From TrEMBL:
This is Glycosyl hydrolase family 95 N-terminal domain-containing protein. Residues 747-804 form the Alpha fucosidase A-like C-terminal domain. One of its GO terms (molecular function) is alpha-L-fucosidase activity. PANTHER family: ALPHA-L-FUCOSIDASE 2. It holds the Pfam family Glyco_hyd_65N_2. Residues 24-289 form the Glycosyl hydrolase family 95 N-terminal domain. GO terms for biological process: carbohydrate metabolic process. It comes from the Bacteria. Residues 318-745 form the Glycosyl hydrolase family 95 catalytic domain. It comes from Occultella aeris.
Amino acid sequence: MSSVFSSEVPPSRATPSAHPVHRLEFASPAAEWVEAVPLGNGRLGAMLYGRAEQELIWLSEGSVWSGPGRRPEPHPVTADVARAAIAASRAAVAAGDHVAAEEALHALQHSYPQSFQPLARLRRTVGAPAPEPAPQAEVVPAQDGVDDSAGADAGYARGLDLHSAVAWTRAAGVDQRAFVSAPHQVLVVEVSASERPVSFVLDSPLRLEHAVADGAEAWAVLRAPDDVVPAYQRESDPVRWASDPRGVQAAVAMRAIGGAVRSRATPDGVVLEVSGDATLILAVRTTFTRLGDDPEPDVTTALAQARRLCRDAVATGVDRLHGDHVAAHAELYDRAELRLGTGPEPAVDISADTDALLDAVADGDGARAGVAPELLALLFQYGRYLLISSSRPGGTPANLQGIWNQQLQPPWSSDFTMNINLEMNYWLAETTGLRECAEPLFDLVEAFAERGREPAERIYGSSGWVAHHASDIWAFADPMGDGTHDPAWAFWPFAGVWLTTHLVDRVTFERDDAAARRFFPVLCGAARFVLDWLEPRPDGTLGTSPSTSPENRFVVPGTDRACSVAADSTMDLELSRHLLRSLLRVADDYRLRDDAADLCQEAEAALPRIAEAGVDGDGLLREWADLDRMADPHHRHIAHLVGVHPTDAPPSASLAAAASRSLDARGDEGTGWSLAWKTAMRARLHEPEAVGRLLDLFVRRNIEIEPGPGGGRWRGGLYRNLFSAHPPFQIDGNLGVVAALAECLVQSHAGYLELLPALPPDLPDGEVRGLHARGGLVVDLQWRAGELTEARITSGQDSPRTVRVVLGSLERLLDLPPGQTLRLTTTDISQERAS
């Protein structure tokens, strides 16, 4: 065994201390939704404004969506219509008539995914009569504004402790603590107000079916709309309620603990009034059944469950509720931690105010992450917190806003957008020790494997399964758009193919025979679609046509016309290659080849024939074969570089160089999620200086700007509560930057373990623990002055004994028995470099 990593030590998983990078803190209440702090348990979400006398809490629940949506019989896009449209588009592409090819694809479009919905508004008042619940039409964000001047008091403070997942507010005479428990499935709001009366008022933008008050308990049944038209379609009547509704119903139960409690129900909501200090227990259950299926028609069971949860929580007691909650959250949260900066204390004093930390990175019109590295460490912790809070087993996947929403027509329907955003939400799950949080995503992919078979056969004549650009909890799988939307994003049948990368990651990061057996049929169905969709070219290679590259457009050769449909987009080819290669790897690693012998043989024959990505005359990676000029050279989507990240086959040196030049040409500017993806790609390409530039852009404050060159209105940044801006808020930026930072520190996609492959120059000092690598490895690192000073590598029980480790120019094969930890110190590194 090599002298490097030669000393064996027992595994160590320390817990984080009460460090400023584990909390948000503010000196004034939230003035708007993107200043509130988020709580969640994977199902129930809450946004707290932190107002003293008149608190505002917006509630949401992951399964409350509009829909299930329109499912006409027979389907308006019949097999004959679909096959004719594809044939016409393919013929037009072959003839060089890209405009006609694009127009033909409008015939495939049907309807749209439904929208994630807000649940209710909860108002807590101290020392004043309770406000009346408002009618449905008045419960809108514009009604949020309450002039709570307590925020001006020097003694005011509010915050969010990420380690305990508890939000708190302290003001003159009012102390509030709130958390959403995963073990007990309740929201708990504790209020101490110097014995003044406390009231809680619940109303909702949804339809109130009925409300009941009974002593210290009250409950309400709410109904989501049957159809919500996406906001970008600009219809005059976008929120629709059917005369014979079949959508989701939500039962909200509330109980108050404290002094004398009075409850009352009104036509618009419920009120609980407590004579002194009070604790509110709130539970929600819905008629949602499972992803892809219609809800139950009867709310009776959901209401009984919600009421029982409240009763059980009261019987448990607040202290036990809090202890169980903190323990369950910390079990996930404590698995990884990032510290940046020198010494045990932060370089910038952030102990009082997160606003001060955001201000610290500002440098004129720009920002410098290196000035306050604690902000990046906080964002790492915050992103993991947000995924834990919005995605847990048994719930629904994190959507564009995670699990939080206050609008009936949220931006982009707050749906599952699958040409980058949903995938990005889950990149951090494997690398930062949150594998359980990916379970809802796996459930959705399996729902697509069922619901996507019908459109795969009807539209494409395939016996596999398909999913397109966007979806919802009903597993909508058709091309969307009602015949009017741009095929640049509305036609893209590779969402399911991309989503399978997460299934593959699950069984490559850690040996999991049960998961491999569970996922292999899903991989087979996706591979069947790809093999049916690939078509031969005159040179014997395989490609795709018609083909788009989300969401970009090219200039039709010889014209000034922009178009989005051609042949052989690089993204199609790379995702096809990755899926077929992964299918064979899983089949062999888990001895499953006999379960799909013919399919595996077909995949083996097709793999070497899939066309390689081309390079244009400027040395840039082509987005489509034989097309050079892009309509928007700085487009935020970088779909053609998917072979760099997140797929796991390292590109050749020539393709890596072309990818780097392509990123240069695209420019650094972009949306929050685009900045995160570019950062991960630059890390994979071992370009730490470029990583540093992108992180500088990511940490600036969000400001609204007019469209212009180099990014226009798509300019990412951070809102006051550190939500990432598209703009508007999209959670993929928060979750994606965690994965990008992990890629800067540890990589394992190339078949070996690489340490500090892309450490930005502005972050010379730091430490990380709990990063996961393929093969069941867990890595802890410490570095000073840009050099690794200590590393611990812990193997899993099913890890291979031999691990190849790369650190700069050093490369070693290590004997690492299962369940052991090897430690590398500064002395080991110095001796090895000298030798």
